[in-house]
Amino acid sequence: MAYRVLGRAGPPQPRRARRLLFAFTLSLSCTYLCYSLLCCCDDLGQSRLLGAPRCLRGPSAGGQKLLQKSRPCDPPGPTPSEPSAPSAPAAAAAPAPRLSGSNHSGSPKLGTKRLPQALIVGVKKGGTRAVLEFIRVHPDVRALGTEPHFFDRNYGRGLDWYRSLMPRTLESQITLEKTPSYFVTQEAPRRIFNMSRDTKLIVVVRNPVTRAISDYTQTLSKKPDIPTFEGLSFRNRTLGLVDVSWNAIRIGLYALHLESWLRYFPLAQIHFVSGERLITDPAGEMGRVQDFLGIKRLITDKHFYFNKTKGFPCLKKTESSLLPRCLGKSKGRTHVQIDPEVIDQLREFYRPYNIKFYETVGQDFRWE
User: Fold this and answer.
1) What are the CA-CA distances from residue 239 to residues 236, 242, 243, 356 (Å)?
2) What percent of the chain stands above pLDDT 70?
């Protein structure tokens, strides 16, 4: 007995035919489901583990349409020709971490190691450590705490070695280091110029007689058996012949040392800090240092208090430090007593050098 084609009007189909039709439909659905899982399950699993974007599949009516509309899953991460998009808007909008005056080296995310744009080049026992500690409170300055002595003792190690010592800085920050012996090193100006002719130089100067006594006091604390200050200062005290070969005396000839620097750097690129005013008016002196470096005046009177025991200003406690910060035990030592006549002789010796220095820099430090 013949029957009509499925879907057309006719006698009811036998139960066996209905079962076959149901099995065929179920088989087709399972095939579609398995194919979908085979194509996407690995990528979905990896995307969930690695955070990669999932493969988007367009809806389709069957396996063949699925093959036509689906694209292969992209490998994790950006391709060379296609930059990756930000992972999340919240991460892109997060502000850069604020750097405190503690100057910790931090992680690579906090910046890059760069050659210094500014140097404190001198002078020894003039107040260079104070300037360094005060200026590094500024969030736009990152300073090396130790003295690398690159341009006088370690120049042969190369600029890459020098750079590796520097703290990490952001683009908006200044990298700074200080080594007071640079000022009296003959080769230092040329070497710094070769690194960068735009380097800003800070020189902290002090009454050369007081500076020499302070220098001697520091040496005496380490070598108690050295000759007297008077004995080291003069070749012949009766004739008033000062021994300029003694380093403590030679450093104070500021006008002579400055000539070497002016061969390479214009005076506008050198800033002179008064060691005396740094004690009596630290905020004023540091304000001028900030102006010279081109940064906002954030270090003000509120940062300082005068320590009567040391006879020197100290930093008040800050957000990064729960305690006030003063310079170390080696700073603010009581000077050895020197014969007033010796002091007068040295003042006369330094007078013409001081006057020349004042005229050159256009500033009277009033050391006479």
Assistant:
1) 6, 9, 12, 24
2) 66
State how beta strands 118-122 and 200-205 pair: parallel
pTM of the model: 0.69
Q: Phi, psi (5° rounding) for residue 97?
A: -65, 140
3-class DSSP assignment, residue 130 = helix
The model's pLDDT over 265-317, given as tens digits with 9 standing for 90+, comes to 999 999 999 999 999 999 999 999 999 999 999 999 999 988 877 777 999 86
Task: Quick: pLDDT tens for 22-79.
Answer: 555 555 555 554 444 444 434 433 333 333 333 434 444 444 433 333 344 443 333 3
Looking at residue 121, the DSSP 8-state letter turns out to be E
Q: Residue 5 forms beta bridges with which residues?
A: none
Start-to-end CA distance of the chain, whole Å, equals 135
**How far, in Å, are 140, 186, 259 from residue 263 at the CA level?**
30, 11, 7
Are 168 and 162 within 8 A, CB to CB?
no
**Residue type (1 letter), 23:** A
Cα separation of 41 and 124, whole Å?
70
Percent of the chain as helix, strand, coil, to the nearest 5: 45, 10, 45
**Residue whose C-alpha is closest to residue 278's, from 324, 314, 325:** 314
Residue 119, φ and ψ in degrees, nearest 5: -135, 140
